[in-house]
Amino acid sequence: MNSSELCLSIARDLPPLFECALGTKEGVRVRTPMLYPDGGIVDVFVLERDSGYTVTDLGEALGWLRMQSTNVHRSRSQQLLVQDTCQTLGIELFRGQLMIRSIPEHQLAEAVILVAQGVLKISDIWFTLRSRSLQTTSDEVDEWLREKQIDFEKGVREVGRSGQTWTIDFRTSTEERRALVFVLTTGSRGAARRQTEHVLSSCVDLTHLKVAQPTLAFVSLFDDTEDVWHQEDFNLVNEYSEIARWSKPDELERILRDAYDLSVDV
């Protein structure tokens, strides 16, 4: 069966949102409606083999996951999550690829969906990476606030004008002012914009708090130890919050203590 015939055969049994196209020399690429956490499209590949067909991601899932972390090696817990995902879906992990081998033609569509689901679940392990990063940065900020003897509450919840409840990483209080501090930290460029958009939405929805508290500051604290932030990210939140960089704690302290001089160079 040539690639065009294989495409037609697979497409007959897949939902309309799946698109089959000529891909590698050995087979075809199926573009799925599923997305990686950063918005990238999940692709699955169908390769013809002597014993039937092989459906694989060609290593894209683990490659994507590796790009989200500065550590090239997965932790033990992440490895177990990958293995558990493969076992649950009946997928083989071979040389970094998710695959199902020796598939008869009439089961190709089902295998494509299973491998795509595996890619999606493994990419979700990114959230464990982000949570660990956020926890580490939050712990550092917590320790720094204690050293500076700045009173604070952690994980504060406030209701916005829309009725939505927002969680703020820190609420600080000094003699001069109070501040709501949003911590932005990630090892992924793709996730960086989503974080800034989330903080912007939070600040806009919570602007009513400043009416009753004129000296209240909204602070976007960027963990710039990772080179993932662009000027556009700072610009996005600059209108509604004060910008602070974790690499410049003196500026952060000035913002938290000074109710009048709020200029911060971005």
Explain this structure.
The protein has 266 residues and is an alpha+beta fold. The chain is 41% helix and 27% strand. The chain contains nine helices and eleven strands. It has a six-stranded antiparallel beta sheet. It has a five-stranded mixed beta sheet with strand order 7-8-9-10-11, with helices on both faces. Helix 2 runs parallel beside helix 4 (108-123), helix 3 packs antiparallel against helix 4 and helix 6 packs parallel to helix 8. It is elongated and about 75 Å long.
Summarize this entry quickly.
This protein is of the alpha+beta class.
State the shape. Answer: elongated
State the helical fraction: 40-55%
Percent of residues in beta strands:
25-35%
**Tally of helical runs:** 9
Q: Could you tell me the number of beta strands?
A: 11
Mean pLDDT over the full residue set: 85
Q: What's the helix-strand series? A: HEEEEHHEEHHEEEHHEHEH
Report low-confidence residues grouped into runs of 5 or more: 261-266
Tags for this entry?
elongated, disordered C terminus, five-stranded mixed sheet, alpha+beta, 266 residues, single chain
Outline the secondary-structure elements.
Elements: H1 3-13, E1 19-22, E2 27-35, E3 41-49, E4 52-56, H2 60-67, H3 76-89, E5 92-94, E6 97-103, H4 108-123, H5 126-147, E7 151-159, E8 165-173, E9 178-184, H6 189-205, H7 209-212, E10 217-222, H8 231-238, E11 242-245, H9 249-257
Parallel strand pairs: 9-10, 10-11
Antiparallel strand pairs: 1-2, 2-3, 3-4, 4-6, 5-6, 7-8, 8-9
Helix pairs in contact: 2-4, 3-4, 6-8
